[in-house]
Design goal:
By secondary structure, the chain is of the alpha+beta class. The protein has one domain: GIY-YIG endonuclease (3-Layer(aba) Sandwich). It has four helices and three strands. The protein has helices at about 1-15, 40-50, 65-70, 90-105; strands at about 20-25, 30-35, 75-80. It has a three-stranded antiparallel β-sheet with strand order 2-1-3, sandwiched between helices. The longest helix has 16 residues, at about 90-105.
Length: about 110
C-alpha cells in the first residue's frame, strides 16, 4: 500500500503542464494557436525540428512559412496554463482546453492566425 501511495505522489509531481499556446512567426507576425495536455511537448517538437531540420515535425499549416523564412523565425509562447485537478476525466479536460483555446482565439485577429 505504501508503494502505491508513493507512485501516485510521484505521478502528480511529474504531470506535464496543460494549456493554450501559440507558435509565432517573427517575420510575418502570424501565429498558430492551439491547446495541449503537454505544453512542454510543443517546445520539444520545435526544438526537434530545428536540430534535425525536419519541418514535418510541426503542424503542416506552418509549412509554407517554414520553407520561406526557416525554422529559426518560429517561437513558442505559452498563453495560459490550465490546472488539471485530480479526478478530472479525459473528456472534461479536452473540453476545457478547447474552450480556453476558443477564448484566446477571440483575442487575436483571424487574419493573423494560420
Amino acid at each position: 500500500m505504501r508503494e502505491k501511495a508513493r507512485r501516485k505522489q510521484l505521478s502528480a509531481v511529474a504531470r506535464p503542464e496543460a494549456g493554450v499556446y501559440r507558435i509565432v512567426n517573427s517575420k510575418t507576425d502570424r501565429a498558430l494557436l492551439g491547446s495541449t495536455r503537454n505544453l512542454g511537448s510543443v517546445q520539444g517538437k520545435l526544438d526537434f525540428a530545428r536540430v534535425t531540420n525536419t519541418p514535418s515535425a510541426l503542424d503542416r499549416r506552418l509549412g509554407d512559412d517554414i520553407r520561406q523564412f526557416g525554422l529559426d523565425t518560429l517561437s513558442v509562447e505559452v498563453l495560459e496554463v490550465y490546472d488539471i485537478s485530480p479526478g478530472m476525466g479525459e473528456a472534461e479536460i479536452k473540453a476545457d482546453l478547447k474552450a480556453l483555446e476558443q477564448l484566446w482565439r477571440e483575442r487575436f485577429d483571424p487574419a493573423r492566425l494560420y
